[in-house]
TrEMBL record:
Organism annotation: Stenomitos frigidus AS-A4
UniProt protein name: ABC transporter ATP-binding protein
Keywords attached to this entry: ATP-binding, Nucleotide-binding, Transport
Annotated compartments: Cell inner membrane
Residue ranges annotated for the ABC transporter domain, each copy included: 3-236
Length: 261
């Protein structure tokens, strides 16, 4: 399996004229990779994810999965948003089954499959709980179980830990690494958190802003993926290089806007 983004542009028409949000985006993601796209506000991260998810169409260019052009949403892509998007009147089991129900699976089949993935994310004991009874991290794990239950080829994540407190976020990072190592599902995640991207991913696409375009592709090779690696010099080197790159291109974008005005 591979996910490919080819010469993708996304424009929006405004009263001031055409706004180019994404410019000539090219990416190749192989089966089993954990890829992050990092960028500051205005880099088009969420817009890019919407193109891959099939929630919006490129102005030009294309997204392909296994050489098939993406024309809309599909079960080959599971989606996890920043906000938990759980149905408050449904319990954990029912939330995890929801996508399978839409696909027309029988009650028995969807219950068995959803239960399997609730076990994978460690929430089997909370199957009857309502979302209001869960912590933020647990809610996001339910959302991940729901996405995995459809057995997608790629898991798409839109800043999934952005609303969590620091300690919960760190716990979710370790959870995601463990989940990825056990399932080897392909993950494409967008984030503005540089340290998060370095800790989780195999490769990082750094996006510049206004318009969003790939400024650098960085392969991440850490000595290990334990929490202690964040104190390692190589981790700091990756982080500092990315932060400097984003700062530089962010400043260029601000200057370009100032000149235009």
């Amino acid at each position: 399996m591979y996910l490919q983004v080819n010469s993708l542009y996304k424009n929006f028409e405004t009263k001031q004229g055409t706004l180019v949000v994404l410019k000539d985006i090219n990416m190749l993601i192989e089966q089993g990779e954990f890829i992050c796209a990092v960028g500051a506000s205005g880099s088009g991260k969420s817009t890019l994810l919407r193109q891959i998810a099939g929630l919006d169409k490129p102005t030009t260019g294309e997204v392909k999965i296994d050489n098939q052009i993406v024309k809309g949403p599909g079960p080959d892509r599971g989606m996890v948003f920043q906000h938990y998007t759980l149905y408050p009147w449904m319990n954990v089991q029912e939330n995890a089954e929801f996508g399978l129900k839409l696909q027309g699976l029988s009650k028995k089949a969807r219950r068995e499959k959803a239960s399997t993935y609730l076990d994978v994310v460690g929430l089997s004991k909370f199957a009857k709980a309502l979302p209001k009874e869960l912590s933020g991290g647990m809610k996001q794990r339910v959302a991940i179980a729901r996405a995995l239950a459809s057995e997608p080829k790629v898991l798409l994540m839109d800043e999934p830990f952005g609303s969590l407190d620091v300690h919960t976020k760190e716990a979710m990072h370790e959870f995601m690494l463990d989940l990825w190592q056990r399932t080897r599902i392909t993950v494409f995640m967008i984030t503005h958190d540089v340290e998060e991207a370095v800790f989780l991913s195999n490769r990082i696409y750094a996006l510049g802003a206004r318009p969003g375009t790939v400024r650098k592709e960085m392969v991440i090779q850490l000595p290990d993926r334990s929490h202690a690696v964040k104190r390692h010099a190589v981790f700091h080197d990756y982080r500092d290089e990315l932060m400097e790159l984003l700062r530089k291109h962010g400043q260029e974008a601000v200057e370009a806007v100032a000149v235009a005005v």
